[in-house]
# Entry
Amino acid sequence: MKGIFQKNSQVVGAYILLASIAGTTLFTTQYLLSFTSPNWSLAFTFIVAILLLNHYTILLPPSGNSLSMDSSIYLAVLFVLGLNLALTILLVTSIIYALFKKSVVWWKHLFNFSIYSIMIVGAYEIFILSGGAPESLSFYNVTSYISSLSIYFLLNVLLIGIFFLLTATENLLTIFHGIFKETISSYLITLVLSLILVLLMQQEIIIGLVLFTSVAVLLSMSFKQYFELYLEVSQKADVDHLTELYNHGYFKSLLEEEIRTARATGQPISIGLIDLDDFKKYNDQHGHLQGDKLLKHFGAELKKNASESSTAARYGGEEFAILMPGKTELEAYHFVNQFRKTVNDIYFKGVEILPHGCLSFSAGVVQFNKDMFHTSEVLEKADQAMYYAKTKGKNNVCIYKAEHMAREMHYNKNEMELLEQQLKIFLYKDVYTYKHSRRVYEYAIEFSSKLNLNATDEKTLVMGALIHDIGKLEIPRDVINKVGKLTKDEWTMVQKHVIWGREIVATNRELHHLLPLVELHHERYDGKGYPYGLSGEEIPRLVRMLTIIDSFDAMTTERPYQTTKSFNEAIIELEKCAGTQFDRELVQQFIAVIKENQTLYEKTNEETVHIGM
# Structure
């Protein structure tokens, strides 16, 4: 946030200055126009109440947002005793805060005072314009109060929302949606309580205020105990009871949140997966109780060595994970490797029986990049790097490098046989989809060769091309083989094949690296695709490649309800849609591949028919 704030510091500074000038000017003008000699004993009673309520705030789970009822008092004073006294109380409390909270920079005090001034004056003007008067609150005049309370809330959202908009990377809609979501319930409570205070004050001002403040303080104490209990229960749910590190579920949830932040800010984030070497041997030799002690010891060391910004977790069994926001893969590697050496040097009872004669681990490190779509893809790459470290003799740390992984995984025979078996199911249900998948597979081999992809990306693209339409197995035979245009409901069903495909592939851990290609191959570069409406580089590069191949084959093979395009016509269509439906650069590279092999491809396609969806 600091870096973003600095980029917009001039704009933010200008906004703060304008808001402060507007607020102080409005305060001065209205104060002078409505000036009457205040009842200082009454004023100081309200001031003390506000100071108490700001000290005894109400903590609200789960986020820990605090709810102060000072707005309830300002509004109640406004409705019962008028604008001048409300502004007097605001001025005095603001001066007291400025004097006693010197650690807060002066412009924040001024900005806060200005916002309150605008909100109070705005609420008062609407109150008067809507026919409001300091009389007994009843059903017939409640409209004036509701209008005033609404303006008070909307001015707060607008003024604070603009500030966050200028200091963050999210768009206007996201900012205001977040503010409404976070504050709407708190403000509804505050504003309703202001009406309750109005009723109390209309009976007896001092007694009403004392009763209101007492109830608020007691609520604050009760909610504090409730919030502490909530945190305790929440922590137990998120923490592994043996190692006292965070558990697998919390780690994955935090990883998703941090990846969203990394996408928005461009800050690096790295993940390390750690697996204790030969832990089963230690367990078998010394028993499970001693094995648990070893896990607890290792967890304590990991927690002690991790930086404040990092999060360590027990990932499962003898596997651990560490999330390192702000660290590049090289920085993460140095940390994990140094920790490995530290662990090697710490003796723990019984580790001398292990192959290295000490406690050791193998670890994989990966840095998130924008081409990674799912958290599962990030973890999968870290897992691959970890197992590659084991193949190097254990007690090693490896950074994920596609060329390294390829030595073990490139065109794995078992994986290809599994994909072929699943694909052959289409022979009995939809021969057209089967043939389409085989052709897209062949195109992918040529395309990946042209782009000089590394071995792992080439494998992923080719295997993903072969299985990308697997979700169509869930579509009824009469729909998938329908001759003629699909109805709206049928088309909706067909669009779901990407989600069904993801669910099918997700059941096999060895195929998780194919999930983005199965799930996202109908996304468009301009954001008008499905299922998520991703656009541009939000769509992983391999998926953008598959989308071009898939569409080209759909255009150039015979379908009952659509005119088949020649290769030259399809090439023109690709060029026409470059930059909208497709990645412009990848389109040109794919066209080059097609032109090099056009005669062969056209001959192959003449022998097949295809229904594309």
Remarks:
- Confidence is low (pLDDT under 50) at residues 1-7, 606-613.
- The first strand starts at residue 58 and ends at 60.
- The radius of gyration is 32 Å.
